[in-house]
Write a sequence for this structure.
């Protein structure tokens, strides 16, 4: 019997478990993957203030690089540059951030069960892929996967690669707006360092592989 069970071992679920455990309640986190932090779920672009508010200090492993500016491109190639030094934007290794949050949750008394997925709520708790668990409260932190499993409405398809190339500049984020290629969203480059970074495209109803290939060829 647990006071609370949290479904989803990503950042939101781990921080929820940390705060529940801090207050002396028993809490179990269910992570359907084989480990916390895999696969990576985002490009890792955050502000130092955001991490501070979440009471997470980026470790040496977590911190990748600091962002100095962002270049924003229109469909016809015009660009504006935004100086972001005052905002203290950094790129983090999202996998390591999740592991750091997991350590904090465990230190506060939370338990984490990997390779275990939530299936449904039952009278006295929940049913999981590894059997039933009794609990007083259930917290669903599975994020967009919960919506995607129920319906596609509102889901923007996304491709996200790690790329090594000489046109990725350390400290410079790039954003590409084009509503024909990326309806309702955009393409982006988030550098982890000089010559390495996360490339992404997203949009409603697009073929993400084709759009990504087009974007890479254009560079």
């Amino acid at each position: 019997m647990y006071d609370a069970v949290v479904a989803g071992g990503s950042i939101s679920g781990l921080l929820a478990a940390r705060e529940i455990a801090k207050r002396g309640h028993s809490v179990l986190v269910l992570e359907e993957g084989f480990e916390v932090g895999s696969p990576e779920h985002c490009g890792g672009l955050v502000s130092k203030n955001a991490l501070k508010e979440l009471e997470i200090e980026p470790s040496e492993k977590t911190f990748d690089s600091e962002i100095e500016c962002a270049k924003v491109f229109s469909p016809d190639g015009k660009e504006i540059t935004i100086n972001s030094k005052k905002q203290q934007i950094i790129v983090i290794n999202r996998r390591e951030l999740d592991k750091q949050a997991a350590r904090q949750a465990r230190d506060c008394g939370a338990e984490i069960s990997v390779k275990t997925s939530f299936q449904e709520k039952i009278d006295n708790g929940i049913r999981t892929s590894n059997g039933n668990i009794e609990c007083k409260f259930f917290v669903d932190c599975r994020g967009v996967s919960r919506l995607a499993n129920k319906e596609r409405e509102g889901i923007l398809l996304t491709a996200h690669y790690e790329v090594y190339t000489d046109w990725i500049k350390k400290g410079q984020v790039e954003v590409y707006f084009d509503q024909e290629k990326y309806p309702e969203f955009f393409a982006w480059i988030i550098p982890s360092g000089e010559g390495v970074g996360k490339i992404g495209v997203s949009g409603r109803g697009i073929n993400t592989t084709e759009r990504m290939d087009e974007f890479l060829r254009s560079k």
Observations:
- The longest strand covers residues 131-140.
- Residues 94-107 form the longest helix (14 residues).
